[in-house]
Structures are given as structure tokens and as C-alpha cells.
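stage 2 :: seqdesign
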């Protein structure tokens, strides 16, 4: 009886994952669903916005703009389901030879689990130009099917044509990696973003995101700091249509973030993040 319950639960779990992540039933593939809490509060329109440890995922080139050392952790249960628990841990350091970042990301539980390790290097070529590269190690573990591993490469560019304007570009999984027994391709996407900083306490981000297998998605977000200790965020995106809100709380070297993202069909997800930043 116990074995039948586990087999049945595993079957329903795999079906649910296929519906949520919209992937091939041969092997559930990694989605492009982000976890970084602060960028999510801005609708993830942050390819040219983020210049801290979260650049490991938003745009590897922007990590070159980080100073000192930083560590962070983000957590969510997607759509309120404990089976879709998602955890992300990151660390980064800035050196005279560039910035280096490392991240571990895990989604799921014993029956189904995605693990991702990312190593990032970014270098400021000039005061107005940064380049970045990330090596991504993917591991997929599905009960009764075993494990599968593959590697991907991301590249990014960050430009500053004017002090108040930043342009960002990110290419995700340039090498078109595949995973699983059926060699399902992992998401391959291109993102172009612009950030506008009209004042020191306001930043606006706009992104165009194109997964090569899906329609283009447009994203827009804003962050406003009414006082230095508080950031208010909001964002929207298309394909799918989503709305997000968030907030950040700052105290010395500590930052606590919250975001809430509303999906048109799957409901709402709450995200929590903690970051510690030691400036030089």
C-alpha cells in the first residue's frame, strides 16, 4: 500500500510539474523562472538595473559594478506549494581583477529536484563598459528516472552612455544545452534592457525578453526610495501577463527584501530575500 501511494503521488507530482513549467513530458526541463527577490519586485525588468550580487542571474556583466563582498539568500514556495520550495544562496566579491560570484539554486523535493550551480566573472573594461560570463551547471533528479547533468553558458554586456542611462544585454544558455534521456533543450533566451535613473532615489527599468521558443515578453518596473532605509518596487510583464510589488528594508550592511508576484492562472507567489553587503 505504501509503495502504491508513493508511485501514485510521484505520478501526480510529475503531471503537476509538467503543467506548471510547461515542459516536455520526457524530462522536466529547467524553466527560466527567476528567484532573486528584489528584481522580482520590479517585474524582473532589471537587465540594466541590478548592480549588486543579483547580477549573477539578471546580467553577469553588471556584477562588475559591485564593490566589496556580499552574500544573499532567497526563498519561496511557488504558488504556495511546499513541493515547489525554491532556495537560492549566493556569494560575490569584487577584486582588482574583476568581480567573482557563485550561486547555488534548488527547486523541488525528493521526488523531483532541480539543482543549479552558477559561477560568474565580470570585468569593467572602461568606466562605461562592463562584460560578464557565467558557467551554469544543471542537475535534474527525478524519482524512478535518475539524474541528468549538463552545462550552460551565459554572457552579458552593460553600457553607460550617460550617467543616468544604462543599457544591458544578456544571452542565456548560448551553447543550447540539453538535459535528460530525451535530450530536451533548456531555455535559450536573449534579453535587452534599459535603465533610467532620473534621481538618486528613483530607477526605472524596461526589458524585452525573448525565449527563442516563445513569444517576446516585455517587462517594466520601478524602484522608489522615499527614505534611505526603504525601497518600494512595482513591475509588470507580458507573456504571461503578471504584476508584481515589493519592498526592501535597509539597515547598515543588511538588506531584507519581499516581493509578491501574481500569475494570471497559477495565482500568487511570495518571495523573501536577505542580503549582507560589506563595502570596501
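stage 2 :: out
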Amino acid at each position: 500500500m505504501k509503495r502504491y501511494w508513493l508511485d501514485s503521488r510521484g505520478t501526480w507530482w510529475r503531471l503537476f510539474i509538467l503543467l506548471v513549467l510547461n515542459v516536455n513530458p520526457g524530462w522536466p526541463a529547467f524553466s527560466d523562472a527567476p528567484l532573486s527577490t528584489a528584481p522580482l519586485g520590479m517585474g524582473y525588468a532589471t537587465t540594466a538595473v541590478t548592480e549588486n550580487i543579483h547580477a549573477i542571474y539578471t546580467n553577469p556583466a553588471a556584477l562588475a559594478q559591485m564593490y566589496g563582498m556580499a552574500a544573499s539568500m532567497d526563498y519561496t514556495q511557488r504558488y504556495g506549494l511546499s513541493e515547489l520550495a525554491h532556495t537560492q544562496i549566493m556569494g560575490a566579491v569584487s577584486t582588482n581583477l574583476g568581480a567573482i560570484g557563485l550561486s547555488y539554486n534548488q527547486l523541488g523535493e525528493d521526488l523531483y529536484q532541480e539543482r543549479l550551480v552558477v559561477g560568474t566573472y565580470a570585468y569593467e573594461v572602461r568606466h562605461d563598459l562592463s562584460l560578464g560570463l557565467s558557467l551554469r551547471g544543471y542537475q535534474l533528479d527525478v524519482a524512478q528516472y535518475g539524474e541528468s547533468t549538463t552545462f550552460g553558458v551565459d554572457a552579458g554586456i552593460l553600457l553607460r552612455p550617460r550617467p543616468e542611462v544604462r543599457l544591458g544585454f544578456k544571452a542565456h544558455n548560448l551553447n543550447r544545452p540539453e538535459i535528460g534521456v530525451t535530450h530536451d533543450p533548456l531555455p535559450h533566451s536573449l534579453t535587452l534592457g534599459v535603465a533610467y535613473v532620473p534621481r538618486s532615489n528613483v530607477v526605472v527599468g524596461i526589458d524585452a525578453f525573448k525565449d527563442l521558443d516563445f513569444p517576446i515578453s516585455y517587462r517594466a518596473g520601478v524602484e522608489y526610495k522615499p527614505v534611505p532605509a526603504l525601497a518600494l518596487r512595482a513591475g509588470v510583464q507580458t507573456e504571461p501577463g503578471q504584476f508584481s510589488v515589493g519592498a526592501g528594508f535597509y539597515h547598515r550592511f543588511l538588506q531584507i527584501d519581499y516581493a509578491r508576484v501574481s500569475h494570471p492562472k497559477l495565482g500568487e507567489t511570495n518571495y523573501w530575500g536577505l542580503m549582507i553587503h560589506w563595502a570596501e
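stage 3 :: structure notes
- The longest strand covers residues 146-162.
- DSSP finds three helices and 16 strands in the chain.
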